Amino acid sequence: METPQPGPADGEERSVELRPRTRSNPEGAEDRRSSTGSLGNSNPSTPQPAVGSRVEGEGEASTSDSPPSSTTTTVSATTAQTVAPIVAATVNAIVGLPTPTPVAKDRPKPTQAPPPLTPPIPPTAEFQLRAPRVNCPEKVIICLDLSEEMSSQKLESFNGSKTNALNISQKMIEMFVRTKHKIDKRHEFALVVVNDDALWLSGFTSDPRELCSCLYDLDTNVCETFNLEDLLSVIRQKIDLPLMDNIQTIPPPFVVRTLLIYSRHAGQLQFSPSDAVNSMLLSPYFFFDVVYLHNGAEEQGDEASWRDIYTSFCNLDSKGTCYHFEVSLCGPAIELHNCMAKLLSHPLQRPFQSHASYSLLEGDDPQDVEATV
Predict the structure, then answer these.
(1) Where are the domains of the chain?
(2) Residue 53 burial by CB count (10 A; 0-12/13-18/19+): exposed, middle or buried?
(3) Residues paired with 141 in a beta bridge
(4) What are the start and end residues of every segment in region (Disordered) (predicted)?
(5) Tens place of pLDDT per residue across the chain (373 aa)
(6) Phi-psi category of 278—alpha, beta or left, where left has phi over 0 and alpha has psi -120 to 50?
(7) Best CA proximity match to 231, nearest among 295, 187, 290, 308
(8) What burial letters (b/e) apply to 207-245, b meaning 16+ CB within 10 Å?
(9) Nearest Cα to 52, choosing from 93, 7, 111, 119?
(10) Bridge partner list, 290
(11) Angle subtended at Cα 126 by Cα 124 and Cα 132, rounded to the nearest 5 degrees
(12) Rounded Cα distance, 95 and 84, in Å
């Protein structure tokens, strides 16, 4: 019996000796191993046991008489990581040191968008009562002012020449009606002309040609007064607003929108609505949009007057769902077309006018950007 020799110290390489041919090692099989430790296997990435360790399938010759190594390849990294904290906790308990509390790593929080520089004012509780945002059919009533101010040659047309507000308004109305008809052929349009009194000129029709046929045969007149209550009373007699049980969930079959193009400078409006007219203005299915043409940029003495009129129209909207625009007659006609383009949006789907933005890029001045239809 051979006396076992002491194993080499840790960190020193064990010398490989050629073993003789024995019953357990015929033909010196272990001596023919390659440098990777396998028989004919040239893949260096496959881990192989070191010389002298037990290999499954070999006989008595694979048993090593040297003391076992401290760590074998069967010990995984997960086991080592699990044992290490237990040993450290045991040592700390014996010595008396406090056991370190595991600290959870803070996950990086997503970056939040910076708050807007000027946050919009949230609508009041009265404004939040809105019908469903559906594109139901519209009944659009176009009210055109025929006062003498509409005939003044002040607006600058596309070719640089001066034209009057009536011609621009007629072309603008035709473009509006035809565009709305292309969006939804269920929309209906009516025409009302405003002199001293309001006249219902064309009934509701879904054919743009029918309305445009009576649009261009109009002339301006010298008008002394303007009775807003009379205009709203005529509209109230011609329409029937939907009555829905649940306003916020059930979409209406249609909505009614009045579009007034006004160009008078007679001071602040005198308006004392009746109960029927007031009920119509408070209906969630009725909208009263206004485009006001004024001379404020040219006649500085009348600036306070036209601002009072514009404020009077804005005060009619207690729901906050109507749109109001003011355009100077001394500017380019494109501003009037831009206002009408902004009115193409559906009244149930458009935002509050104070929240609407027409700029494509951040930092653009909305007043300098033309609305794209």
Answers:
(1) 138-350
(2) middle
(3) 190, 258
(4) 1-77, 99-121
(5) 455 555 554 444 455 555 555 555 555 554 555 444 444 444 444 455 444 444 444 444 444 444 444 444 443 444 444 444 444 444 444 444 444 554 444 555 544 444 433 334 444 444 455 778 889 999 999 999 999 989 888 888 878 888 889 999 999 999 999 999 999 999 999 999 999 889 999 999 999 999 999 999 898 988 878 889 999 999 999 999 998 888 888 899 999 999 999 998 766 677 788 899 999 999 999 999 999 998 865 555 555 578 888 888 998 888 889 999 999 888 888 889 999 999 999 999 998 888 887 777 666 555 544 443 3
(6) alpha
(7) 290
(8) ebeebbeebeebebeebeebebeebbbbbbeebebbebe
(9) 7
(10) 260, 324
(11) 105
(12) 17
- In sequence order, the 6+-apart residues with CB closer than 8 A to the CB of 364 are none
Q: What CATH number has the domain spanning 138-350? A: 3.40.50.410
Angle subtended at Cα 285 by Cα 279 and Cα 289, rounded to the nearest 5 degrees = 90
Q: Three-state SS string across 111-137, please?
A: CCCCCCCCCCCCCCCCCCCCCCCCCCC
Q: Measured between alpha carbons, how far is 280 from 235 in angstroms, rounded to an integer?
A: 10
- Cβ atoms of residues 176 and 339 within 8 Å: no
Helix ranges (H only) for 239-345 are: 275-282, 303-315, 334-342
* DSSP helix/strand/coil, 299: coil
CB of 350 closer than 8 Å to CB of 356: yes
CA angle 13, 17, 18 (to 5 degrees): 150
* Tokens 């261009």, located at residue: 216
Alpha carbon distance 295, 306 (integer Å):
8
Please state the pTM of the whole predicted model: 0.62
What token pair was written down for 151?
A: 């005939």
What b-and-e string marks burial along 320-337, b requiring 16 or more CB atoms within 10 Å of the CB? ebbbbbbbbbeeebbbbb
